[in-house]
Amino acid sequence: MKRQKFSREYKLEAVKQVRERDVSSAQVARDLGISSNVVSRWVREAGGDVRKAFPGHGQQHAEAAEIERLKREVSKLKAERDILKKAAAYFAKESG
User: Fold this and answer.
1) Where are the domains of the chain?
2) Distances from the Cα of 41 to the Cα of 17, 34, 46, 56, 67, angstroms
3) Which of 1, 17, 47, 88 is the most buried (most CB within 10 A)?
4) Does residue 73 sit in helix, strand or coil?
5) pLDDT of residue 71
6) CA 63 to CA 10: how far, in whole Å?
7) How many CA atoms does the CB half-sphere of 96 hold within 13 Å?
8) What's this model's pTM, rounded to 2 decimal places?
9) What angle do CA 55, 59, 65 make, to 5 degrees?
10) Cα torsion angle, 26, 30, 32, 57, sign
11) Any residues with CB less than 8 A from the CB of 53 and at least 6 apart, and which?
């Protein structure tokens, strides 16, 4: 089954129905023919500022981009650390 993709405007309209029209996430989901979990997630992701919600098309919030960069750096540093541990153990064994 192929995963459905929804436009930013579609998601914002669903969130707007839940927040401004006081309609439940479940009811909005039924009206749109999608899972209530999806609508609930959109409401959470929209957070307080809907203008910044659902950037899409590879555009990330600055914080999210920084977190991803830091995760990659941590992964690289862990790999380097592990190599150095192995090298230290090897040389300790050779000299002893």
Assistant:
1) 1-58, 60-96
2) 14, 12, 8, 15, 21
3) 17
4) helix
5) 95
6) 24
7) 6
8) 0.53
9) 110
10) positive
11) 8, 11, 12, 15, 45, 46, 47
50: closest CA among 75, 82, 16, 83?
16
Q: What is the pLDDT of residues 52-68, one digit of tens each?
A: 777 665 556 677 778 88
User: Which residues make Cβ contacts (< 8 Å) with residue 36, sequence separation at least 6?
Assistant: 25, 26, 29, 30
CA dihedral 6, 10, 14, 20 (to 10 degrees): 150
User: What tokens does 72 get?
Assistant: 């990659």
In the CATH hierarchy, which fold is given to the domain comprising 1-58? Answer: Arc Repressor Mutant, subunit A (1.10.10)
Length of the chain (residues): 96
Q: Which two tokens stand for residue 7?
A: 């436009």
Q: Rounded to an integer, what distance in angstroms lies between the CA atom of residue 70 and that of residue 74?
A: 6
What residues contact 55, with CB distance under 8 A and at least 6 apart? 8, 61
